[in-house]
């Protein structure tokens, strides 16, 4: 799905240049569940933003299904994101004045796919909450709305940046189960930044980053069940 070669990125502040991504070369397969770990400031979010087309300022090659993201202009990048990508963040980024149903419907407008909002809400277990507003929901319910809004686009890749960081352990497990099911049942590629070491056990592969570099890439020959991991 992704072929990344010699990806570099730096920020300049006057005379000082700060290398944030440092010669990253890696491939990511279709249908992978990939975890990315590393200390704060190691470049995880920046890496996600480049792959997801939110950040166009980089050097090197980032190929998505053979297409060079570096060659896209802003308009092509918007189309790329709409057709292929969904993001889920620790903060849910829901629109406060819209109901659950309407928040998910917004995702549908962004892409012309004809999925049913009700079906997606049923899938994430929110059907009976569809007329509520975000401030009437728990954190886990809000994250499920965010996932439903992502799903309705029918993305090929879901990027998750600490998707369960703000949730208690049992709610977090429910959210992870939803992401794992999507990955298995619909072959959606999931690329997830996390600080939770336990989550590497359920991932096909995990990457450790440090100072903008990939320190190690480990394949999980036998992934664990969600029920088997601690939190
Ligand atoms: N807009 C910016 N301008 C300058 N430096 C930036 C900018 N955005 C990020 N950085 C720097 O890039 C580095 C990598 O940041 P990034 O957010 O990718 O790290 P991270 O590994 O995701 O961290 P965390 O786990 O804390 O979210 C950090 O040193 C950060 O200060």
From TrEMBL:
GO cellular component terms listed in the entry, alphabetical order: membrane protein complex
SMART domains attached to this UniProt entry: AAA (SM00382)
InterPro entries: AAA+_ATPase, ABC_transporter-like_ATP-bd, ABC_transporter-like_CS, MacB-like_ATP-bd, P-loop_NTPase
Species in which this protein is naturally found: Paenibacillus crassostreae
Annotated signal sequence range: none
Similarity comment: family membership: Belongs to the ABC transporter superfamily.
UniProt entry keywords in alphabetical sequence: ATP-binding, Nucleotide-binding, Transport
PROSITE patterns for the chain: ABC_TRANSPORTER_1, ABC_TRANSPORTER_2
Pfam family, one: ABC_tran
Coiled coil, from the record: none
Organism domain of life: Bacteria
GO molecular function, one term: transmembrane transporter activity
Domain ABC transporter span(s) in chain numbering: 2-231
Protein name: ABC transporter ATP-binding protein
């Amino acid at each position: 799905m992704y072929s990344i070669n010699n990806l570099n990125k730096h920020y300049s502040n006057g005379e000082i240049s700060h290398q944030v991504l440092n010669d990253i070369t890696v491939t990511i397969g279709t249908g992978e569940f990939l975890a990315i770990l590393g200390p704060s400031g190691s470049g995880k979010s920046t890496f996600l933003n480049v792959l997801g087309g939110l950040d166009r300022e980089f050097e090197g090659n980032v190929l998505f299904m053979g297409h060079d993201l570096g060659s896209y202009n802003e308009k092509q990048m918007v189309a790329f994101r709409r057709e292929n990508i969904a993001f889920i963040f620790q903060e849910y980024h829901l629109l406060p004045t819209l109901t659950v149903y309407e928040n998910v419907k917004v995702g549908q407008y962004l892409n012309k796919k004809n999925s049913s909002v009700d079906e997606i809400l049923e899938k994430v277990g929110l059907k009976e909450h569809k007329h509520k507003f975000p401030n009437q929901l728990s954190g886990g319910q809000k994250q499920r709305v965010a996932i439903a809004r992502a799903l309705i686009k029918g993305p090929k890749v879901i990027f998750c940046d600490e998707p369960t960081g703000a949730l208690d352990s049992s709610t977090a497990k429910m959210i992870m189960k939803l992401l794992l099911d999507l990955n298995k049942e619909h072959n959606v590629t999931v690329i997830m930044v996390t600080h939770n070491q336990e989550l590497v056990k359920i991932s096909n592969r995990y990457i450790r980053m440090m100072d903008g570099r990939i320190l190690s890439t480990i394949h999980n020959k036998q992934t664990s069940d969600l029920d088997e991991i601690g939190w």
